[in-house]
Amino acid sequence: MAGHGHPAHANGRGRRDPLRPPGPQTGRDAGPGRRRSRHGAPLPARRRLHHRLPATHRALATHLAAASGATVHVLDYRLAPEHPYPAALEDVLAAYWELLDRGATPGRTAVAGDSAGGWLALTAALWLRDSGDPAPAALGLISPWLDLTGSAWPDDRTDAMLRPAWLRRCAREFGTGTDPAELAPLEADLAGLPPITMHVGSEEILLDDAVRLAHRARAAGVPVDLRRLDGLWHVAHASAGLVTASTAAVSALGSSLRAHLADGERRLPAG
């Protein structure tokens, strides 16, 4: 969450859980520590995991850490239009693997993101599932921007934060030259994903997409906790500490992630 729409990784303390050796399902190079995206491009070995939180997400990350009882790592990933897809996704995956290489345990790790970071968190989870890599214990999606085409945005809802024309322009710059199907997690097979906690404001044009994701994920057997925050706006959580409802929303998200991290720890093998 290092800037608007950025994902974060929340880690509880756990034992070392080494990644298994490279294999044909993992998308990794044979060389040590080198991994490749499904496009064949080497993934960066490291991206910057912030210890100094950017002002835009300082309150959100701090309150989330307190509520979840976890350490929150904030990712500084590459941004479009200078770095279009798949750069941001590659950085998220590289950061996740870096955390595991540092000793984090997948069963004690959650991946969370707001706005476009929600899209990244969900898409990264799909990539990890398809590549056979260890999945995080849970996903936390805050006001996720899930449909980059905006094909189902309602015309009768006024959003004080988001304008459809601006969102579509950002999506074009982000996905230049990419098959639209590759940018559509709402249309993907969602089976096998980790539990999802999702918050969305009642006044957002993104509300219907969040509801649709919840329905499709539940139908695929994925546990989903969807909370519609009445009267709140896009990523209202960023006002935690200033707005009572925002603080309560982050507390609820953190409590849910804390429970999933505890469940993941209970599933770890003894030893």
From TrEMBL:
One MF annotation (Gene Ontology) recorded for this entry: hydrolase activity
Record region (Disordered): 1-49
Ranges of Basic residues composition bias in the record: 33-49
Signal peptide start-end: none
Residue ranges of every copy of the Alpha/beta hydrolase fold-3 domain listed in the record: 54-237
Name of this protein: Alpha/beta hydrolase
InterPro entries the record matches: AB_hydrolase_3 (IPR013094), AB_hydrolase_fold (IPR029058), GDXG_lipolytic_enzyme (IPR050300)
Keyword terms, alphabetized: Hydrolase
Pfam families noted in UniProt: Abhydrolase_3
